[in-house]
Predict the structure.
Amino acid sequence: MKLLCDRIRKDGQILPGNVLKVDGFVNHQIDVRLFSEMGRAFYQAYRDCGVNKILTIESSGIGIACFTAQFFDVPVVFAKKSRTSNIPDAVYAAPVHSYTHGNDYQATVATRLLGAKDRVLIIDDFLANGSALRGLCELCRQAGARVVGAGIVIEKAFQPGGRELRAEGLRIESLAVIESMDERGVTFAEESLR
Amino acid sequence: MKLLCDRIRKDGQILPGNVLKVDGFVNHQIDVRLFSEMGRAFYQAYRDCGVNKILTIESSGIGIACFTAQFFDVPVVFAKKSRTSNIPDAVYAAPVHSYTHGNDYQATVATRLLGAKDRVLIIDDFLANGSALRGLCELCRQAGARVVGAGIVIEKAFQPGGRELRAEGLRIESLAVIESMDERGVTFAEESLR
């Protein structure tokens, strides 16, 4: 998505350790026009898939999930992050490792909010090692829900999550695919620039 | 807002300790049509106030903030919750006590995302003791930003936050004002039912 790639080049900051900081427009301040266009792009990709629920994880997935859900006219469920395995009954739970924060947590969804009739589109802001996305897929597996695919704002293709999950059969549509980044800037995959 | 009060009566659950559980449509699963109507209601209340930024706090404020921001066509900034006072430089920070979770945290916003030119509408899902709302006001004070008011989805008027903050001069518009609740149900303030 050219609009997004241009914005990353203009306002993104590259920090040591392959950290791309986009907090001015994605995950601390939200640009609502950009998010609406991103939601529309996910809708165009998945409009014929019978999606009846959007699943994301708190906190930074919620905004883009909401904008996407408007186009589909379906509810958003956001998984919660629980730091302990001491979670109440009646939730699905899956372990997630955060490389960004260097910790582990449980992603949980109340069992009555996800079930076998659901055709789920998973939405998240970043895909790198794929731990969160894998956890969300696992929640759907526990619920008997069908995952039709994932919509990702920014994929770091030089980290293995996207490649591994696609190899396992998951459809993933990423709006900005970063092939490499260093102090000189970001190189996007060709298809992201259209 | 009658639509919201009817929904609370239909799908809300009252748990011991004055807990109103609305996770099926507000703070775990999000009903996008309801949220869009709530965003419209906040816009109608504050449309003439020159709002140029929506401020909320992660996680459950983000959805309603996004829907509200679409009507105003302004960015959303969501304050982050930090469990330690060991926070990086270049943020505004204010202490918040969570009565729900029984803990304290710092609400933080990057200094470059909030400033003296901002006219801020604060949005949140619940108002009870007012600690989060007070923290968000404090972040604006530190930034020199003007708070034009707050938009709250559900206010528990039998807890002191709303009364105290209004007495200090803050304008607060709440869509569902609960005067009392017990095992028999919820009593809304008269004006919420229109």
Q: What stands out?
A: The interface with chain A takes residues 23-24, 28-33, 35-36, 58-59, 62-63, 66-67, 69-70, 73-78, 80, 109-110, 112-113 of chain B (CB under 8 Å). Chain B has one domain: 2-193. Residues 38 and 68 of chain B are 7 Å apart (CA to CA).
